[in-house]
Design a protein that fits this description.
CATH superfamily of the largest domain: Vaccinia Virus protein VP39
Radius of gyration: 23 Å
Number of strands: 14
Helix content: 25-40%
Largest sheet: 7 strands, mixed
Structural class: alpha/beta
Number of domains: 2
Number of helices: 12
CATH class of the largest domain: Alpha Beta
């Protein structure tokens, strides 16, 4: 079997499905388990830190581990960095067959920090019977020193190992998500897969096959494509569980009037700026519900075009990327981390038309999942907050497939990842 520790909603599992394989996932979160069940993935709902590792002895081909990143992520307090010496100690002890987790846990500033040592408990138990054949691990960049400690131990056990930082955008994910990766194998030389994409397209040459340009958010979401429907702006709401930005009854109007990639006034509509509407007297505030019959703010001329950008959170230093670029790293789980589409107004417009610019719109779960390289119809379970938390913590399946394919001796066709539909 392929054993997937901290399996989440199925980033690694979906990649394996595309490659014609399956894993057994260990996951404790109720809603991630329900998502996995709807996606047809095998799951044991349990706490990875207490499940007995010896049960799998003699049956494991590959081990995957993506420990929770909240203790280490820049989106949180990063107490994992404070606890790092304790985590290194736990890894060293577990590799030697000593379980000191209980003592070390009491000294940790964040009890989640020690979860990054759990893969070593499983690896030590499996190594006694010459397993697994290969190992893949993923975490936020600050965990790289810990992965290097793992690498040194695995090399002593006969593995070829590579550890470093990879950018998901270099592998066709519409997001510049940088992650610390560990690759290890008993049967082949461990090395990262060659990147398939670059910030600027590179033509094929004598020195290599060339690389495509990074996949933009607009391209992934299908915005501006004549053969695809324009995405609606009301299918979901904020990850904090707040109101949907627009009610269901507004979908047709918004779909007809606004394409977030490059929004152009509907050619058949004779609408006026929101500041002039008689039904409201003012433009709606960001995130506010609109009456079902209210007109979408737009203009009476075809010359104005609005570009859209994605703001990664509502903090002052938030990453803002245009729709024709990949997204910044998506992370959720706190209201401060809500992502929103913000309009960019062309210069030189009259003041009343500037005031009538479209309001910021919270990203939908479908859009966030697609930007994480999940299919548009992935069966996310739970409310908005639970769904967004799953998405933000998941491994991008497209990156996972690139990492998995060499170890499975499976051909990988990136075109199998259909995002927007």
């Amino acid at each position: 079997m392929i054993l997937d520790l901290f399996a989440g909603p199925g980033g690694w599992s979906h990649a394996l499905t595309v490659l014609g394989a399956r894993d057994v996932g260990l996951e404790w979160d109720e809603w991630a388990c329900k998502t996995r069940a709807r996606a047809g993935q095998l799951t044991i709902r349990t706490d990875v830190a207490v499940y007995p590792a010896w049960i799998f002895s003699g049956r494991v081909l590959g081990l995957i581990a993506s420990p929770p990143c909240q203790a280490w992520s820049m989106a949180g307090k990063r107490l994992g960095l404070v606890d790092q010496p304790l985590v290194h100690q736990a890894v060293a002890d577990l590799a030697a067959g000593r379980d000191t987790r209980e003592q070390l846990l009491g000294a940790c500033a964040d009890p989640r920090s020690l979860l990054a040592a759990e893969p070593m408990r499983y690896l030590h138990a499996l190594n006694t019977v010459g397993e697994p054949e290969w190992v893949l691990m993923e975490e936020v960049p600050d965990v790289l020193p810990l992965w290097r400690q793992y690498a040194a131990i695995l090399r002593a056990w006969g593995f070829s190992v590579w550890a470093g930082i990879l950018n998901a955008a270099d592998y066709g994910v519409p997001q510049t998500r940088r992650r610390a990766i560990l690759l290890a194998s008993r049967t082949r030389t461990a090395a990262p897969p060659p990147p398939t994409h670059a910030p600027v397209a590179e033509p094929e040459s004598l020195f290599g096959p060339g690389r495509a340009r990074w996949v933009s958010m607009a391209e992934a979401l299908g915005w501006g494509a004549t053969d695809r429907p324009v995405p609606t702006v009301c299918a979901g709401g904020g990850p904090g569980g707040g109101p949907e930005p627009f009610p269901t009854g507004s979908r047709k109007t918004l779909t007809d009037a606004r394409n977030r990639g490059t929004w152009t006034p509907h050619p058949d509509a004779e609408l006026t700026p929101a500041s002039r509407r008689e039904d409201s007297g003012r433009a709606a505030r960001p995130g506010e519900n609109r009456p079902a019959g209210a007109a979408t703010p737009t203009f009476t001329t075809e010359r104005h075009r609005w570009s859209w950008s994605l703001r990664s959170n509502n903090q002052s230093n938030a990453t803002v990327r245009r729709a024709d670029e990949p997204a910044g790293t998506l992370f959720f789980g706190h209201r401060a981390n809500e992502c929103a589409w913000i309009p960019g107004a062309p210069s030189g417009l009259p003041d009343d038309e500037q005031r009538a610019a479209p309001a910021p719109i919270k990203i939908t779960a479908r859009e966030a999942g697609v930007l994480q390289s999940f299919p548009a119809d992935y069966p996310w379970q739970g409310n908005k907050g639970q769904t967004f938390s799953q998405i933000g913590n998941a491994v991008p399946p497209r990156l996972a497939a690139h990492l998995l394919a060499p170890h499975l001796n499976k051909p990988f066709n990136p075109d199998d990842f259909i995002l927007a539909a």
